[in-house]
Design a protein that fits this description.
RNA transcription, translation and transport factor protein, 241 residues
Length: 241
C-alpha cells in the first residue's frame, strides 16, 4: 500500500501495519475524514469511536454504504479498494494540479525503460491484493496460494479473452434439431423435467462415443499403414498342420 499511502500524504506510509487493530481503525477514520468523506461530519461518530466493541459492525455498514465488493474479514483487499477510491477522489479534487505535472525523465533518454516485472515481489501485499481483485473480477475460485490463482487467470485469459479465442467463440455452430420425445429413455425418474435432462445427457454421451469410435478407426488405419507389408501374400499361408 506504500505508493498509494504516499500519494495520499499519509503520515506513516512505510510503517503502516494493517494487522494492528488500533492503527487500522485510526487509518479508516483518517481516510474517511480526509479523503473519502462519504458521510457528513455528524454521521461519522460511530466510525470515530474506535474503542467501541461495535466498531466492526459500523465498519461493515460503512463498506456497504460505499458499495465495496469486499467485507471486513478481507482486510487487505478492503484496504486496497479503499485506497484506490481515495486516490480517485483525491485526483478529482485536484485535477488541474495533477494534469499540469510533467513526467519525470530518465537521466539518459536513450536508455530503454526497465522491465517492471524484474523487481516484482510476488509476496508483496499489493501484488496479492491485485491478484485477488482480478480473480474476483473474472469470477475465478479462490485458492490459498495466490500464485496458483494467477496461473488460473493466465489460462482463462489465454483460452477465452484473447482476440483469437473471442473470434472462435463468436462463430455460430449450426446443428440439426432433435425431437427428444422420439428417443426412448429406458427408465423413468418420476419427474418429466429430469426425464428430459436424462435424454439430453444420453444423446450427448452417444455423440461422444461416436467421436471416440471415429478416432479409434483413424488410429487403426494409421497403424495398419505403418505395419502393412506389400510383399506379404496371404495365399501362401497355411491353416493348421
Amino acid at each position: 500500500f506504500r505508493r498509494k499511502l504516499t500519494a495520499l500524504e499519509y503520515h506513516n506510509p512505510t510503517g503502516f501495519d494493517c494487522k494492528d487493530e488500533t492503527e487500522f481503525r485510526n487509518f479508516i477514520v483518517w481516510l474517511e475524514d480526509q479523503k473519502i468523506r462519504h458521510y457528513k461530519i455528524e454521521e461519522r461518530g460511530n466510525l470515530r469511536n474506535i474503542a467501541s466493541s461495535d466498531w466492526p459492525k459500523f465498519f461493515e455498514n460503512y463498506l456497504q454504504d460505499l458499495k465495496c465488493p469486499f467485507n471486513g474479514q478481507e482486510r487487505q483487499e478492503t484496504i486496497d479498494w479503499l485506497l484506490g477510491l481515495a486516490v480517485r477522489f483525491e485526483y478529482g479534487d485536484h485535477v488541474e494540479k495533477y494534469q499540469n505535472c510533467k513526467p519525470m525523465k530518465e537521466a539518459n533518454d536513450d536508455q530503454k525503460p526497465a522491465d517492471p516485472l524484474i523487481h516484482l515481489d510476488s509476496n508483496n501485499p499489493d501484488f496479492k491484493a491485485g491478484v485477488l481483485a482480478l480473480a474476483n473480477l473474472l469470477k475465478i475460485q479462490r485458492h490459498d496460494d495466490h500464485l496458483v490463482m494467477l496461473k488460473a487467470i493466465r489460462i482463462l485469459i489465454q483460452e477465452r479473452l484473447t482476440p483469437e479465442a473471442i473470434a472462435k467463440a463468436s462463430q455460430s455452430k449450426e446443428g440439426l434439431p432433435v425431437a427428444l420425445d422420439k428417443h426412448i429413455l429406458g427408465f423413468d425418474t418420476g419427474d418429466a423435467t429430469l426425464n428430459e435432462a436424462a435424454r439430453i445427457l444420453r444423446l450427448l454421451h452417444i455423440e461422444e462415443l461416436r467421436e471416440l469410435q471415429t478416432k479409434i478407426n483413424e488410429a487403426i488405419v494409421a497403424v495398419q499403414a505403418v505395419i502393412a507389408d506389400p510383399k506379404t501374400d496371404h495365399r501362401l499361408g497355411k491353416v493348421g498342420r
